[in-house]
Amino acid sequence: MKSKLIHNAPQRTFAVVFDQGDEVLENLLAFARQHRLTAASFSGLGALSDAVLGYFDWQEKEYRRIPLDEQVEVLNLTGNIALAGDGEPKLHAHIVLGKADGTAHGGHLLKARVRPTLEVIVTESPAHLRRRTDPESGLALIQL
């Protein structure tokens, strides 16, 4: 993974280009830690060799896993970075993936491996965001 600061005022904007084989979430989280991002949004395009999406089951209070074990196009990746209660950055990412037959699948991004590239623009937010665990859902939600 490579990155470049492409704008520095009033907030930082980065271009982050993933290499083939990179795991998306672990590398994006490492990037957030490295650059001390406490609040940011991101969007991206590219392609993946495989991915696991999630659909939040309200009754069970957990994500149903939706594996896609094939080459897919990233039609849209969007999400945010905010600090968790422990002061560490946490990612919340949703993705829409296109398959070879033209169908699309989307959901919460749980896991993904890049092939051949993924290009992500990360824009720092001017205000710090924090996540707190919501007692009803069990999810870490942004608290304003």
* Biggest sheet features: 7 strands, antiparallel
Which CATH C-level class is it?
Alpha Beta
How much helix, percentage-wise, in residues?
under 10%
Number-wise, the strands total 9
Q: β content, as a range?
A: over 45%
- What's the total helix number? 1
The secondary structure category is mainly beta
CATH superfamily: Hypothetical protein, similar to alpha- acetolactate decarboxylase, domain 2
How would you spell out the order of helices and strands? EEHEEEEEEE
Report what the structure shows.
It is a single chain. The protein has 144 residues and is mainly beta. It has one domain: 60s Ribosomal Protein L30, Chain: A (2-Layer Sandwich). Helices cover 8% and strands 62% of the residues. It is built from 1 helix and 9 strands; from the N terminus they run E-E-H-E-E-E-E-E-E-E. It has one helix at 24-34, and strands at 2-7, 13-18, 39-57, 62-68, 72-83, 89-98, 104-124, 130-133, 140-143. The strands form 2 sheets. Strands 1, 2, 3, 4, 5, 6 and 7 form a 7-stranded antiparallel beta sheet that branches. It has a two-stranded antiparallel sheet with strand order 8-9. The longest helix is centred in the N-terminal third of the chain and has 11 residues, at 24-34. It is flat and about 40 Å long. It starts with a strand and ends with a strand.
